[in-house]
Design brief:
The chain is built from 2 helices and no strands. It is mainly α and about 25 residues long. This is Amino acid ABC transporter permease.
């Protein structure tokens, strides 16, 4: 198991997912 810093990764997930969804629509 890797020691991930979930406290910083988890809150950023919605933004990463939103970026993946929005990017194709912009281009």
């Amino acid at each position: 198991m890797y020691d991930f810093d979930w406290s910083s990764i988890v809150p950023s997930m919605p933004y990463l997912l939103a970026g993946l969804v929005i990017t194709p629509k912009i281009t």
